[in-house]
UniProtKB/TrEMBL annotation, chain A:
All copies of domain Protein export membrane protein SecD/SecF C-terminal, residue ranges: 124-305
Organism: Occultella gossypii
Record-stated family: Belongs to the SecD/SecF family. SecF subfamily.
Assembly with partners or alone: Forms a complex with SecD. Part of the essential Sec protein translocation apparatus which comprises SecA, SecYEG and auxiliary proteins SecDF. Other proteins may also be involved.
Protein localization: Cell membrane
Protein name as it appears in the record: Protein-export membrane protein SecF
Gene (name only): secF
Keywords assigned by UniProt, alphabetized: Cell membrane, Membrane, Protein transport, Translocation, Transmembrane, Transmembrane helix, Transport
Top-rank taxon, per record: Bacteria
TrEMBL record, chain B:
Family the entry assigns: Belongs to the SecD/SecF family. SecD subfamily.
The protein, known as: Protein translocase subunit SecD
Location in the cell: Cell membrane
Function in brief: Part of the Sec protein translocase complex. Interacts with the SecYEG preprotein conducting channel. SecDF uses the proton motive force (PMF) to complete protein translocation after the ATP-dependent function of SecA.
Length: 366, 683
């Protein structure tokens, strides 16, 4: 634990540093790989639509002592032999039977048969009907909301950070999170229900939330970056990521713990249902949101920012100066590492450093 | 940065403010439980409480887009039906401006569900008979058992001119000047109930009205059993005395206004209809447009026998309300509702008004037509002239002019009738109460486990500071609970399962604010600030970050709330609520708590377990200071601090700071080589 604190301190001071921005090609490759994997998962396994998207009838038998799915299959076969029911257990003593759309008469008949088969009063068998457009309606609304949200949030972030590059990088990270979450969710094979759509939507907020925290530090570190020549924009951004790394880890652990507990309770105690679907979507999404805020968002921001001729010129200038100084140092006999140590930490901002140059000088004539 | 003096006052004041805030929230809930119908536990939505939920999409026949006014009118109609059918606590809301969600507790009967699903139609029918809303009073019928003098049985062959309209105040014509202008017809209005006495029978065609037939006795003076009433009604309506209620008009009706439409059965139904009973105000579109109809006013103040449909609501192209503009262009103070008919509708309306405005009908008071929406009469104005222009204007009666709201409501209803809406059932869901309870219990269990894990992790990470985290979470949790209880009382908010999930997720997001703040304090200490200064400076920076990130979260919640449908809304609501409360708690609780804690010995002097001990905060680790040099912790103390420390260690040989001496002066210039200095600092 002390080591973790020390770890944080070292990251902050730049003594220990992960070259996250420098290895951006690797992270981008991993990110693209994940996106392709997600595409494949969706393509091969397919999205498993919930009843809200398929449409159909759903029966819930509660309070049965013998939740054997076969009984439900048998009951359905008596009513409509062509259909295959999807049967899943819900909680400890309930069972959920989903069929294609049944007529009112069939619905009543099946409800009675189910009550008989599971030995419960007919009142404990509830039936629902979901039109096929209901889930699509929820989703189209959600997509509409998504687009409006993205436009608004891009504006807000561009205004807050005063840089389009940050807003765009955050959006790229967000899309990555969303695609990966949907892909892995389909990979697990849970049904996509409105509850999981809620989970995906929450990822929007959470992913950006996480990114904003990191970018806030990037913004702070790179303020006045052009006024000095000790480190490049990329290095300052990298330092910011390292400095917020402990925060990112702590936040994701704290955020994931409750979600993991819902997922655990939902998957093992409750069976299929709202909680499990939301929790799985959130768990994947929050994990990748944290990762992407570190590995995708900031490096992407740096890439975008490097396109600015001013930043590019500054980077070239800093690197050039550094080469010269390394060369000078090597002549004196120092190693390059010693000279480059300064680049690991935040550079000096005029007026802030405490070295000799900051001390009042006596005017002496030489 | 706050001066020490200021910060000595501020945290307590802020905490008091928060305490007052919490007291207000819980105080209002407490007051609500005592004097109103609030409860300490929030209302639960159907997925937790059990019940039936229907989601309906209103659709017009021609696929026109549906306006929000039409949706709210449709909701009003469904609500009237459901309320009148006696289902308590039905919740009918619009979702995303398009769908209508009807949530019924328990397992409602099939009839109730049908009521909800039925579409609503508007029809214009001529008025044949109007009466007070109550059932027939047998006393009156006793007095007139002879069909010939029966005040309420209409002899179809009776000469309509023999009727005496003057006795009916309801048909009093409004004396609007004839709007013989080009565009506007005038319809004298009638929206007032015919009588204040609900039991007063006042058939307008009453030819032989006598004072005795206007009973002045109170309705409770004599009470009759239902059987007696039924028998009296039977006797009164069985015109030919054969004991069978015929449903065939005695003669072939010549027009929609012909009294011949009133059959024995219809008369009987009319006598028996009790519009004071809410069950009869259910409405519904079951009426046959080709047959006459017995119906109630939608507010239950009158009942009517109406002729067959003359005009469908779809013939209205638009209706609007506004102040009346006279011919000369001056605006009066009277509110009117203007109706614009389609060209075909205008022609039909012209024909209808021509007939209604005929002297015979004007004379017997049946020069009125009723606008029937969803089987209930919303307005029954009288007509004094033919209206050929396809534009009509309804004004209030002189005795009872329209208020602005009434005029607007009527215009909305007419517009609704203009585009009859059918409801497409999107989903119909029954949730068993036991299953909902199980989900809620398990969900809360999951929340509890999550909370404990968060507490354990923050103890591990932040030691003593975990107290602040836990206390903040407790404050945030109780505030959220209080606000939800308050909203569920004031706004009828209901907590749904996605809402619970939102609350559990919020634990993590709320805790993150504290993490950002704590990490910032550490950062500031690493930069070389003293603890109390770091608490302030860290706060300034953390506040910025917390505000920005919470703003993003809030934006997401607001957009989702207003655009999304179904469970997404409940989730977005709790997400937004917890984000706001997170801000409140961080500003009003966590920050002042930190200010207070740094003044205690345990935290302020950095006890090993406080989470603020120097090593934990990085004070023992050399910080980089630029130019390839690192500062040792020694360098970071002010001279005064070092002297005091020396004095203390001399006195007690116990020092909170690691006893490590560096030869460097503060801000010294010695050109020690980087790597060595750094390692020194670590060991």
């Amino acid at each position: 634990m002390m080591n973790f604190a020390k770890f944080g301190n070292e990251l902050y001071s730049g003594k220990r540093s992960f070259d996250i921005v420098g290895n951006r090609r690797r992270w981008f490759a991993i990110g693209i790989g994940l996106i392709i994997l997600s595409g494949l998962l969706v393509g091969i396994r397919g999205i498993n639509p919930g009843i809200e998207f398929r449409g159909g009838s759903e029966f819930t038998v509660s309070g049965t002592s013998n939740p054997d799915p076969q009984l439900a299959h048998d009951a359905l076969a008596e009513v409509n032999s062509e259909q295959v029911a999807r049967v899943s257990t819900v909680g400890s003593s309930a069972i959920r039977v989903q069929t294609e759309e049944l007529t009112d008469a069939e619905t009543g008949e099946l409800a009675d048969l189910l009550a008989e088969a599971y030995d419960v009063p007919t009142g404990d068998v509830t039936s629902s009907f979901v039109g096929p457009s209901w889930g699509a309606d929820v989703t189209s609304k959600a997509v509409q909301g998504l687009v409006i949200f993205l436009v608004l949030v891009t504006l807000v972030m561009a205004l807050y950070f005063r840089r389009w590059s940050m807003a765009i990088a955050a959006l790229i990270a967000l899309l990555h999170d969303l695609i990966v979450t949907i892909g892995l969710y389909s990979g697990v094979g849970f049904e996509v229900t409105p509850a999981s759509v809620i989970g995906f939507l929450t990822i929007l907020g959470y992913s950006l939330y996480d990114t904003v925290v990191v970018f806030d530090k990037v913004r702070e570190n790179t303020e006045g970056v052009l006024d000095q020549t000790r480190y490049t924009y990329a290095e300052a951004a990298n330092l910011a990521v390292n400095q917020t790394l402990v925060r990112s880890i702590n936040t994701s652990v704290v955020g994931l713990l409750p979600v993991a507990s819902i997922l655990f309770v939902g998957a093992f105690l409750l069976g299929a249902g709202t909680l499990r679907d939301i929790a799985l979507a959130l768990f994947i999404g929050m994990l990748f949101s944290t990762l992407s805020s570190v590995f995708i968002a900031t490096p992407m921001e740096v890439v975008l920012r490097q396109r600015d001729p001013k930043i590019a010129a500054h980077t070239a200038k800093v690197l050039d100066l550094r080469d010269r100084r390394v060369a000078e140092a090597e002549e004196v006999g120092l190693t390059a590492d010693e000279v480059l140590a300064e680049a690991r930490a935040g550079g000096l901002v005029a007026g802030r450093h405490l070295g000799q140059g900051a001390q009042p000088r006596r005017k002496t004539k030489r | 940065m706050a001066t020490p003096k200021k910060s000595a006052v501020r945290p307590l004041r802020t905490l008091t403010f928060l305490a007052v805030l919490i007291a207000i929230v819980f105080g209002s809930v407490a007051a609500g439980t005592k004097w109103s119908d609030a409860t300490w536990t929030p209302n639960l939505a159907l997925d937790l409480e059990g019940g039936t939920q229907l989601i309906l999409t209103p659709k017009t026949e021609d696929g026109d887009p549906i306006t929000s006014e039409q949706v709210s009118e449709a909701i009003r109609i469904i609500r009237q039906r459901v309320d009148a059918s006696g289902v308590a606590e039905a919740e009918i809301t619009s979702q995303g401006g398009q769908n209508i969600v009807v949530a019924l507790p328990g397992t409602p009967s099939e009839e109730t569900l049908d009521l909800v699903r039925r579409s609503a139609q508007m029809r214009f029918r001529p008025l044949l008979v109007e009466a007070g809303p109550g059932q027939i009073d047998p006393a009156q019928l006793e007095a007139a058992t002879d069909p010939a003098t029966d005040p309420t049985v209409v002899d179809p062959s009776a000469d309509p001119t023999a009727t005496d309209p003057a006795t009916d105040p309801a048909t009093e014509e409004t004396t609007e000047p004839a709007a013989d202008g080009v565009v506007r017809g005038t319809v004298g209005a009638e929206t007032t109930p015919p009588s204040d006495d609900p039991t007063t029978e006042q058939p307008i065609e009453d030819a032989t009205e006598e004072p005795s037939e206007e009973p002045t006795e109170e309705p409770t003076a004599t009470t009759y059993t239902p059987e007696e009433i039924e028998a009296a009604a039977m006797a009164a309506s069985d015109a030919n005395g054969d004991g069978v209620l015929s449903n065939e008009p005695a003669t072939e009706p010549t027009s929609a206004s012909d009294q011949a439409w009133i059959t024995e059965q219809l008369t009987y139904d009319f006598y028996m209809l009790d519009c004071t009973d809410p069950a009869n105000l259910v409405g519904g579109g079951a009426d046959d447009p080709d047959l006459p109809l017995v119906s109630c006013a939608d507010d239950g103040t009158a009942k009517y026998i109406l002729g067959p449909m003359e005009l469908a609501g779809t013939e209205i192209s638009s209706a609007s309300s506004g102040l009346q503009v006279t011919e000369s262009g001056t605006v009066t103070n009277d509110y009117v509702v203007s109706i614009q008919f389609t060209s075909a509708g205008g022609e039909t309306f012209a024909a209808v008004t021509e007939r209604l405005a005929s002297p015979e009908l004007q004379a017997n008071g049946t020069n009125r037509f009723a606008m029937v929406l969803d089987g209930l009469v919303i307005s029954a104005p009288s007509v004094t002239e033919q209206i050929p222009s396809g534009e009509a204007q309804i004004s209030g009666s002189t005795a009872n002019p329209f208020t602005r709201d009434e005029a607007t409501a009527l215009a909305n209803q007419l517009n609704f009738g203009a585009l009859p809406i059918t409801f497409e059932v999107q989903s119909e869901e029954q949730i068993s109460a036991t299953l909902g309870t199980e989900q809620l219990e398990r969900g809360l269990l999951a929340g509890l486990i999550g909370l404990i894990l968060v507490v354990v992790y923050s103890l591990f990470q932040y030691r003593g500071l975990a107290i602040v985290t836990v206390a903040s979470l407790v404050v945030a949790g109780s505030l959220v609970y209080g606000v939800i209880a308050l909203l569920s009382w004031v706004q009828g908010y209901r907590l749904s399962l996605p809402g619970v999930a939102g609350l559990i997720v919020a634990i993590g997001i709320t805790a993150d604010s504290f993490i950002v703040y704590f990490e910032r304090i550490r950062d500031e200490v690493r930069e070389g600030r003293r603890l109390d200064a770091a608490v302030e400076e860290g706060w300034k920076r953390a506040r910025r970050t917390i505000l920005a990130s919470d703003a993003v979260n809030l934006l997401a919640a607001v957009v989702l709330y207003f655009l999304a449908v179904g469970g997404v809304r409940g989730f977005a609501f709790t997400l937004g609520l917890t984000t706001i409360i997170d801000l409140v708690v961080v500003v009003l609780f966590t920050h002042p708590m930190m200010q207070l804690l740094t003044r205690t010995k345990f935290f302020g002097e950095g006890h090993r377990l406080s989470g603020l001990d120097p090593e934990h905060l990085g004070a023992s680790v050399s910080a980089y200071k630029g130019r390839g040099r690192f500062r040792s912790p020694e360098e970071r103390l002010t001279i005064a601090e070092r002297r005091r420390r020396d004095a203390e260690s001399a006195a007690s040989a116990e020092s909170p700071e690691p006893a490590e001496d560096s030869p460097d002066d503060p801000g010294g210039e010695s050109e020690s080589v980087t790597s060595t200095s750094a390692k020194d600092g670590e060991k």
